[in-house]
Amino acid sequence: MMSQPSPSPSPSVILATASYDHTIRFWDAKSGRCYRTIQYPDSQVNRLEITPDKQFLAAAGNPHIRLFDVNSNSPQPVISYDSHTSNVMAVGFQCDGNWMYSGSEDGTVRIWDLRSGTCQREYESRAAVNTVVLHPNQKELISGDQNGNIRVWDLAANSCSCELVPEVDTAVRSLTVMWDGSMVVAANNRGTCYVWRLKKGTQTMTYFEPLHKLQAHDTYILKCLLSPEYCDPQRYLATASADHTVKIWNVDGFKLERTLIGHQRWVWDCVFSVDGAYLITASSDTTARLWTMNTGEAIRVYQGHHKGTVCCALHDGTDNTAS
Predict the structure, then answer these.
(1) Which GO biological process entries does UniProt record here (predicted)?
(2) How far, in Å, CA of 160 to CA of 171, rounded?
(3) pLDDT tens-place string over residues 223-241
(4) Which residues in the chain show pLDDT less than 70?
(5) 91, 97, 146, 233: which sits with the fewest CB atoms below 10 Å from its CB?
(6) φ, ψ of residue 196 in degrees (nearest 5)
(7) Confidence at residue 322, expressed as pLDDT on a 0 to 100 scale
(8) Is 91:102 a contact under the CB 8 Å cutoff?
(9) CB under 8 Å to 232, separation ≥6 — which residues?
(10) DSSP 274-302
(11) Do the Cβ atoms of 82 and 90 come closer than 8 Å?
């Protein structure tokens, strides 16, 4: 991840953060220098995600999603996605970048045509949606909501194929799926992670086999994230919390490997580098940090936001469309 930026205008590592100060910042990951700032006056930004081809950055706000060109200096979005009616809390892309998905506090999960900006599908969760992830099979979306419901949306059948409630009336704050589709983790407002093995049923449906319950923190977990494919055979779960720490758990037995200490306020978001060797975090203390996994040290602090930094996005892998 820490390679020198390529000579072209676009760096090989795309790192972006957003803050309650109504800006999105792009950073040179290695030097810590901010090289571009986008003003986002309409609302706060709740989530950032970079397209698989590294061309665009999606910013999920209230109630819009805006798509910005990564390689341009234009402050204007390329396109706006406008049919949600409340805070958009989750956004992500199909692996080839063919479509985008989102989840909102308006209680819906939506699928969007990336180019036209039109909403193609809408699923009703009946409670504020906090988190949505796409199964690696690219055929199922998994959502978690404020009432504690986890739902699997089968995109082929266009219906909800599975529902479970790990803890009644305890908001599911974050979901993460192992890159090979073998496991899903849900983190909640009480600092608990529920872990399931994902198995294929007799039909196409995925079903959840309870594997582990991890009391990771004593307060809110704001983000949980499983390590990427190129981190194997080591497999980790990162949990970012309101207790100012991020904990790294070994998925083999869910033993605590290390605690990342340095942020002064809530840690809202985290993202692994493509090889799992580094972690970027975003915190209410206004900073983002780069941690090295083998020592748990913060080796870079990204300073420039004036208010809490609530989300971060990183793409340091290859451009999927070019490979």
Answers:
(1) regulation of actin cytoskeleton organization; TOR signaling
(2) 19
(3) 999 999 999 999 999 999 9
(4) 1-10, 201-205, 320-323
(5) 233
(6) -125, 145
(7) 46
(8) yes
(9) none
(10) TTSSEEEEEETTS-EEEEETTTTEEEEEE
(11) no
Number of other CB atoms surrounding residue 306 within 10 Å: 11
Give the angle subtended at the CA of 278 by the CAs of 275 and 284, to the nearest 5°: 135
Coil, strand or helix at 244: coil
**Strand bridging mode 23-27 / 221-226:** unpaired
Helix, strand or coil, per DSSP, at residue 5: coil
Per-residue pLDDT of 192-232, as tens digits, reads 999 999 987 655 567 899 999 999 999 999 999 999 999 99
Residue 144: predicted pLDDT: 98
Task: Pull the structure tokens for residue 211.
Answer: 């594997």
Question: What pLDDT score was predicted for residue 207?
Answer: 85
Q: Which long-range contacts link 286-295 to residues 24+ away (Cβ below 8 Å)?
A: 286/19, 287/263, 288/17, 288/27, 288/312, 289/262, 289/263, 290/29, 291/246, 291/260, 293/236, 293/248
pTM, rounded to two decimals: 0.94
Residue 208, burial from CB neighbour count under 10 angstroms (0-12, 13-18, 19+): buried
What pLDDT shows up at residue 186?
98
The neighbouring-strand residues paired with 260 are 246
Instruction: List strand residue ranges (DSSP E) for 96-245, in order.
Output: 99-104, 108-113, 119-124, 129-134, 140-145, 150-154, 159-164, 172-177, 183-188, 192-200, 206-215, 221-226, 236-241
